[in-house]
Amino acid sequence: QVHQGKGKRILREVLQRYVPEHLFARPKMGFGIPIGDWIRGDLKDWAESLLSKSALESSGLLQSTPILEAWKDHKLQGADRQYELWTILMFQAWMEKTKGNI
Q1: Could you read off the pLDDT of 78-102 as tens digits, one per residue?
Q2: Tens-digit pLDDT profile for residues 20-77
Q3: Do residues 50 and 91 make contact, with C-beta atoms less than 8 angstroms apart?
Q4: Cα(62)–Cα(76) distance, rounded to whole angstroms?
Q5: What is the torsion angle, in degrees rounded to the nearest 10, for the CA atoms of residue 98, residue 99, residue 101 and residue 102?
């Protein structure tokens, strides 16, 4: 229910009794996911296998050279290429999972 331009009126009224207003009366905020750190750390071996030259070229759809350059640049922390690399990693993981089933 919207009341004076604000939704969740009942929830806000209950919260006011128990929680300081500055903790809930603020705009929505997103949160970051540390993809870049993950693929440099815990997921590095997985990323390396999917971003190898042979894995990248196996589908015949990707050019390995610019991807490998971006991966190298990201690993050395010279650039933040996490979003581009994550997209490629997801594509590669999907291709690997569906190999022969397309």
Answers
A1: 789 999 999 999 999 999 999 856 5
A2: 888 877 777 788 899 999 999 999 999 999 999 999 999 899 999 999 999 999 998 7
A3: no
A4: 23
A5: 90
Q: Residue 12 contacts by C-beta under 8 Å, 6 or more apart in sequence?
A: 6, 24, 25
CA 50 to CA 11: how far, in whole Å? 46
Cα 48 from Cα 42, distance rounded (Å): 11
Amino acid at 75: K
- Output the CA torsion sign for 65, 67, 73, 76: negative
| Residue 4 identity (one-letter amino acid) | Q
Q: What is the pTM of this model?
A: 0.69
- CA dist., res. 96 & res. 46, Å (int): 12
Q: State the DSSP code for 98.
A: T
- At 101 the three-state DSSP class reads coil
- Distances in Å between the alpha carbon of 60 and those of 52, 57, 71? 14, 5, 19
